[in-house]
Design a protein that fits this description.
single chain; 87% helix; 68 residues
Length: 68
Amino acid sequence: MIIAGKLFRELVGLFIDDGSLVLQIVVVILCASISSILLPDIPLAAGGILLFGCLGALFVNVKTTARR
């Protein structure tokens, strides 16, 4: 049973390396989906939120990792 737990954590670790980055990306996706619902006539708004939000989250994550 202990081996199965370690195996599961390793497998999840392959896809989710940094929990804060995952949380930031989820928030960006939620903001983009809310904007697409509230502003259906402006589809580029959701695209811009996704593009710049994901790039910003990645930049913050790289900067934080570089400080460590």
